[in-house]
């Protein structure tokens, strides 16, 4: 069984490192929050959208 969390591999928009972002499989159809990169500690804007295929994640910079 899948746990109720998914990990999406993303590229940090600041340092370019590949990072895993833990995402809850269940939740709002769209949400955004700020999380710090574990590599460079700069704040991502994490945008999550969910549909029948599961969550998808995009990382943006929080300083736009
Ligand atoms: Zn980073």
Features:
64 residues; mainly beta; three-stranded antiparallel sheet; two-stranded antiparallel ribbon; binds zinc ion
**Helical amount among residues, as a percent range?**
under 10%
What do the pLDDT scores average to?
88
Helical stretch count?
0
Count structural domains. 1
Shape: globular
Ions, cofactors and other ligands present here are: zinc ion
Beta-strand content estimate: over 45%
Cα(first) to Cα(last) distance is: 39 Å
Count of β-strands: 5
Organism: Corallococcus praedator
Protein name: CPXCG motif-containing cysteine-rich protein
InterPro entries: UCP037225, zinc_ribbon_bacterial
Summarize the structure.
The protein is mostly beta strands and 64 residues long.
Q: How do the strands and helices of this protein lay out in sequence?
A:
Layout: E1 5-11, E2 18-24, E3 30-36, E4 43-51, E5 54-61
Antiparallel strand pairs: 1-2, 3-4, 4-5
Bound molecules: zinc ion (ZN).
Any overview of this molecule?
This protein is an all-beta fold and 64 residues long. The chain has one domain (5-61). Helix content is 0%, strand content 59%. The protein contains no helices and 5 strands. It has strands at 5-11, 18-24, 30-36, 43-51, 54-61. The strands form 2 sheets. A 3-stranded antiparallel beta sheet has the order 3-4-5, with no helix packed on it. Strand 3 and strand 4 form a beta hairpin. The chain starts with a strand and ends with a strand. The relative contact order is 0.29. The structure holds zinc ion. Zinc ion binds next to loops. Zinc ion (ZN) binds at residues 12, 14-15, 17, 37, 39-40, 42.
